[in-house]
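Task: sequence design from structure.
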């Protein structure tokens, strides 16, 4: 069983804050995807326990990002698609305890599709 959450901010540009987020991902054993470098800032976190996801979200909250919005609270990850098996990961997918930065919203959407949470992500972003 895995859990995930989605955060939207105005932007993510501070390298110092990204370093803090990377260390927190390692500490709390979470997989983190960041859409950094411009507006909007998007953060997706996934972990093996709800407490770990909530702890990582707490770190983000303390960084006081402009326009911080926890648009999808931590909840059990239910993969989308015909079967309920966990999303298949490829060698390019990050693993727990890692953070990956993504440059565009389009590429972020592609990652969400690979993780089989694309419709969930679109709802959280207000696209659906």
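Answer:
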């Amino acid at each position: 069983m895995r859990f995930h959450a989605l955060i939207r901010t105005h932007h993510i540009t501070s390298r110092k804050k990204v370093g803090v987020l990377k260390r927190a991902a390692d500490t709390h054993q979470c997989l983190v995807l960041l859409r950094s470098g411009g507006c909007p800032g998007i953060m997706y976190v996934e972990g093996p326990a709800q407490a770990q996801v909530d702890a990582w979200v707490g770190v983000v909250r303390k960084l006081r990002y402009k326009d911080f919005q926890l648009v999808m609270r931590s909840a059990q990850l239910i993969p989308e698609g015909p079967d309920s098996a966990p999303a298949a990961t490829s060698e390019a997918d990050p693993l727990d305890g890692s953070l990956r930065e993504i440059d565009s919203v389009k590429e972020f959407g592609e990652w969400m599709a690979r993780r089989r949470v694309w419709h969930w992500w679109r709802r959280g972003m207000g696209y659906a």
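The chain has four helices and five strands.
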